Input
Amino acid sequence: MRFLLIFLASLLFGDAHIFVLHRINDPRYPSTNTQTAQLRNYFEFLKSHNYKVVTLSTLIKMIKNKKPIDKIVVFTIDDSYKSFYKNGLPLFKKYNYPFTLFVYTKATTEKWGDFMSWDEVREAKKHGELGVHSFSHPHLAKLSNKEIIDDTKKAIEIFKKEIGYIPKIYSYPYGEYDKRVKKIIKKFFPYIVNQNPGVIDFTTPLDDMDRIALTGKTNITKKLKLKRLHANINITKSKNKIIKVSGKIYDKVPYINLYLTKMGWIYKIPLKNGFFSTNLNFPLKKYRNRLIIRYNYKIISKMIIKEEK
Output
């Protein structure tokens, strides 16, 4: 019943979109780069279509206070690359668009040349807000519980020293996490973002918020059409093989399409009274895998980590 009420509220108050950027105008790394001209085009589209750009903490506050979030956009920046400071920040300032910058604390503290300094981070903070992106940017699921805790505590200690406070928002390095990792990080941060493609509404867990990557020549018009697909997804695994995916779809859709990394799409999986079940028997090919379930512009996704022997 509680989910049904939240679901109905989400239909009334709309969907928000969180975007993630990394490098700005740095063609050395095309997979994580966004050209300045492309970013300007995104901003012009948002401005001309009356979207409101806010920080992540503002969006969280709106959701908690049951405020409408339709046409709300958040820009998050991972890793605190110097290219953001040099090429992205001036554009954010020009359009008066705030942002949430997730700081890679080890790279910043040790003054790695490709990353912002703490002085630059403090300057950027005047125009947005900060979040934590771990200390050493590890593959968290490969670490022991103690190693995850130690890395997190070190990042917190440095933030307190350099900034004077501890942000409440965390971004997973590489977007990688599983239930164990999430359980540990939640002890330190109430709000967590991932890198699973998806949309935010009142049903979104605030400790597991999806973000859409804006790299290359992304069609932002299509991304802004995306809405959250409301579903309860069950994944049946045997070691590193996905045996079956099943669940309940709460939206009124006739079927779903399902994608798994390296497997590709399965189209038009039928629903019976909202329920579906499909046998995959597909061995995971990569360490980091995404399961995406979609119907037209409605989407929900999950991260699946391949267990290492």
Notes: The radius of gyration is 19 Å.
